[in-house]
Each structure stands twice: as structure tokens, then as C-alpha cells.
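Colleagues,

Please find the record for the two-part complex below.
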Amino acid sequence: EDKVVQSPLSLVVHEGDTVTLNCSYEVTNFRSLLWYKQEKKAPTFLFMLTSSGIEKKSGRLSSILDKKELSSILNITATQTGDSAIYLCAVSDGTNAGKSTFGDGTTLTVKP
Amino acid sequence: SAVISQKPSRDICQRGTSLTIQCQVDSQVTMMFWYRQQPGQSLTLIATANQGSEATYESGFVIDKFPISRPNLTFSTLTVSNMSPEDSSIYLCSLGDGTEAFFGQGTRLTVV
């Protein structure tokens, strides 16, 4: 059974801090790892990492895939209160990223 | 990127009744996926909705409880049947490809 484990489960920081969220996985047939931000109901897609694209960056967010260690990190620099959300990591074993196994998420709270 | 319209946004239902959730996509997609997120938990895949064939259900989910329709390449419905309070969750439809994935806005269901 595929498994995705995220840590920490929750994190409280102050604006301007840098945070690192962790995700490790055990899957039978790895194709891609995805990061999402969930503020209300619907997760918002952030990044997809694959064997051919192990590092992604967008603004203050960046992510790296370590295929040897079966893990990934999501970094957020210069955090803002708007970054407060649940960050979900998911792994897909097929060509369609819509079908994934999700971790329990990391709840990030950024205080002013 | 695809746009998914999911309805209803939320509902409060009596136990023993059924609710049908709809997802409309602005483009044709081969596969759509339905997820459940129980309170305080992560997303769990219910089934894959295939156009022109029966949905494929994940372990622990059955067609009698969660019937799915996929009449064309832009639309799908999930019905939660004979509801009990344990069905209170956020239900989400999703689609993806080889580079990214998207979710509908989600349906927050409360069963009383």
C-alpha cells in the first residue's frame, strides 16, 4: 500500500521566517510528487516533481525531490500571514496526476 | 489549466437521504477523480470516473454507497447514498495530466 508521511504536522512561525516542510513516501511505482496548498476546501496545485524535474521554484516557494531518500521538501522564505494554510504532499504512480495518495498535511500558521 | 465547477458548495442533509454532487469541466478530459476529506484528515481517493465505462472504486468504497456517473468528457456526478453522520466530509472532484492537477471547489457535506 502506498504511503505518504509529512512532517511536522503543524508549525507556527512569525512573518519573515523561513520554513521547511518535509514529505517522505513509499510507493510501488513512483511517477511524480505533488505539493498543494489548502486554505478552505479545495487544494491549490503548487508543484509537480518527477525524475526529470527534481527542483521547482515559484516566487518564495521552492521544492526539491530526493529520489534516493524517497523524500521531498517544500521551502517557503520570507513567510507572510497569507501563507497560513495546510500544505499537502501527494504521490502519483500513474501518468495522470489527478490520481494520487495524499499525506496528512502540515498546518502552517504564520503570525504577524 | 482546466476550470472545474463543482456544485453544491455545501449542504446539510438528513440521515438516510442521498446527495448528488456535480462537477463540470471547461474542457474534455478522459479521467476524473473523486476524493473525500473527513474532518481533520487528508484526502482519500474514492474512485476514478471513466467516460463510457464503470467507475473504478478504491478499497473500502463501493458503488452502492457512492454511485458515479460520467455521461460525457466534461461532466461527472458522485452520489452519497443513504447518508449517515460518518459521511460528513468535504467531497472533491479532480483531474490532471502529466504536469499538473486541479480540484473543484469542494462540497462540504454535513449529515444530521
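The first strand of chain A starts at residue 3 and ends at 7.

Comments are welcome before we finalize the supplementary table.
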